[in-house]
Amino acid sequence: MTEFLLSVHVLVAIVTVGSITVAASMFPRIALRACGSGSGSDGAGGSGTAGEERDGRSEGTGTAVLLHRVCTGYAVAGVVVPVFGIATGAQLGVLTDAWLIVSLVLTVAAAALLGLAVLPGQRRLLALAEGAAAEEEARPVASRLSMTTGMFNVLWAVVVVLMIVRPGSTTGA
Fold first, then answer.
1. Is 114 helix (H, G, I), strand (E, B) or coil?
2. Which of 28, 40, 71, 103 shows the greatest Cβ crowding within 10 Å of its Cβ?
């Protein structure tokens, strides 16, 4: 049973958290580019289909919307990660180990940062892009969002290291 719980925990973490970190990291640049182009093109000289509109949105804004949907959708699915992590910890008898407690605290911090800063920041930047805001107006929001997303990513990197190294663990790692 422990192997099953650990497998689900690791697989869901890779799929959900990995997807969020990539999409959230790409989002500020893509959304800022959509703001700066006026029409949402990629700034490649206006040739080709970069500025084409679909469903009333420019391609750049559409890409930003897609990245935001990836972040929100996988954030909801990501709730499974700590649930299976706690179940695995209980099976292994390590729920009171310092490395696991610190990992859980950092996971809660990362989830709070995602829900209270990253996703709302993405919505603000999307509103600017869809409202045809100038790049200069959107740049401070994008910069703040990039920093916050970086903090989110670092929290998850620390959690991964703690899960692998398990400092002080007596389970033979």
1. helix
2. 28
Report CA Rg, the chain. 19
Coil/strand/helix, residue 95 = coil
Cα(77)–Cα(157) distance, rounded to whole angstroms?
19
Could you tell me the CA-to-CA distances from 15 to 40, 42, 75 in Å, in that order? 29, 28, 11
| CA–CA separation, 24 and 3 (whole Å) | 31
Distance separating alpha carbons of residues 71 and 62, to the nearest angstrom = 14
Tokens read off for 89: 């910890």
Q: Look at the block and give the residue holding tokens 């911090």.
A: 109
Q: How far, in Å, CA of 31 to CA of 125, rounded? A: 7
Q: How far apart are CA 116 and CA 103, in angstroms?
A: 19
pLDDT digit string (tens) for 113-169? 999 999 999 999 999 988 877 888 999 999 999 999 999 999 999 999 999 998 866
H or E stretch at 53: strand 53-54
Question: Is the C-alpha dihedral spanning 63, 60, 126, 120 positive or negative?
Answer: positive
Length of the chain equals 173
